[in-house]
Structures are given as C-alpha cells and as structure tokens.
Write a structure and sequence with these properties.
The chain contains seven helices and no strands. Helix 1 runs parallel beside helix 3 and helix 4 packs antiparallel against helix 6. The two termini are 28 Å apart.
C-alpha cells in the first residue's frame, strides 16, 4: 500500500470527523456553514488518476451525507467537484510544471492559490445549495447561503493552507 493512499485515508477520516462533529453545527447568521471537506478534493495532485479522484470525492461526499442527513446532496456536489478538479487545477498550473505537482500555496503562489480555492468553493457551494433547495422560490436565501458558506469555507481553507505552508 502506497504511503500516498494512507495519507489520503488519514486526511479523509480527519476531514469527515471535523465536518460531521464540529462544522455542521456552525451556522452563522442562518446562512454561513463551513464545508471544509471539499479541501480534501482540492488536494489531489496533478497527475492523480481521474477515476480515483471521482471515487474519493464520491466517498467523502457520501460519508458526510450519511452523518449530516443530507441525502445525496454532498455526494453529488463532491463528485462534480472531483470531476472538475483536474480542469480547474490545469487553469492555474504552468504547462511545464511536473505531473505530480500538488496544489499548495507554496507551489502556486498566494494569488493563484486563492483564486483556485475561491473557484472550487463557489462551484461546490453553487451545486450544493441548488440541489439542497431544489427550487429558486427563495432565491435570496439561496444566494446568501452560497455567498456566506463560500466566504467562510474559502477563508478556512486559506488559513489551513497557510499553517501547512510553514
């Protein structure tokens, strides 16, 4: 068993536990809930097999769904982000960068990493809250949920990445 798989499994378990036990109970102003488990999907290196990214993404989404009482919402959103992650990663990497490059703030630089994080988080939250509300009847609350959760999640991911960088 490769050390990379063990590292992914450890990160998977930690982020699932943190999301389910702590972050799901945080709801700021009724519209901002941090969805930190998407950070796991953002961490896959550039040359990682796409089928494995999709499988890991679906697994973490399903795991959070089971314990959060959101049937299929997290799994669908995480799987879509897992599908788009290699393409989003390609937007911010240079063509001559190595195939096994990990998307970190140290590799990308602060500005490109912040943009990468914001795009991934907004795409995930857009899909997540669209599926969760399943209608645009209360579009103002839908927009608040997307904006608040995206801002809170992006800030949390950038702070964690700053600590990892050191």
């Amino acid at each position: 068993m490769k050390i990379e798989v063990v590292r992914h499994l450890f990160t998977f378990i930690i982020l699932c536990l943190v999301q389910v036990l702590v972050l799901n109970h945080i709801n700021i102003l009724g519209c901002a809930t941090p969805l930190l488990y998407i950070y796991f999907i953002m961490l896959f290196r550039r040359g990682y097999p796409r089928w494995a990214v999709l499988l890991w993404s679906f697994a973490i989404g399903l795991c959070v769904d089971v314990f959060s009482n959101t049937p299929g919402v997290g799994a669908a959103s995480a799987t879509l982000l897992g599908l788009l992650q290699p393409y989003l990663l390609g937007l911010f990497t240079q063509r001559d960068s190595p195939d096994d490059m990990k998307p970190t703030m140290k590799e990308f630089g602060t500005t490109r990493y912040v943009y990468y994080t914001i795009i991934c988080v907004v795409v995930f939250n857009l899909v997540f809250f669209s599926i969760e509300s399943f209608s645009f009847f209360n579009w103002l609350q839908w927009a608040k949920n997307i904006g608040g959760s995206s801002a809170l999640t992006a800030i949390l991911i950038i702070v964690i990445e700053n600590f990892r960088k050191r």
